[in-house]
Amino acid sequence: MALDEDVRTLATGRNFGALTTLFEDGSAQTHVMWVDADDDHVMVNTEVHRAKFRNVERDPRVTLTIWHREDPYRYAEIRGRVVEVVRGPAAREHIDACSRRYTGHDYPGEQIASERAILRIAPDKVLRFNLS
Known about the structure:
This protein is α+β, with helices and mostly antiparallel strands. It is built from three helices and seven strands, in the order αββββαββαβ.
């Protein structure tokens, strides 16, 4: 399922997202995160030691809600699955690119405790609210 232009624009702007993953017992965990997108996927970048990473390794089902930073009533909810994990130099380059978009500078290396990983999420369902 390709992302429509409005959702892709929302995900590639300086807008935040809330990623929800599932623990083994079925309880949910949600984190506010930087987001990104390509033509077919929404993406987040995390570290492999984090609970959200372990959660999606076990159960790839996620929900990512992205809201417009100037109007939080404009948002999209993407329900889908993590279909690819990208590690290594590409993941580090990606977090730097996200950091430059959100903060104006590269991601501080001293804040990285383990390996970076891009979670590529294929949408199964997209709900749009007040997007053009």
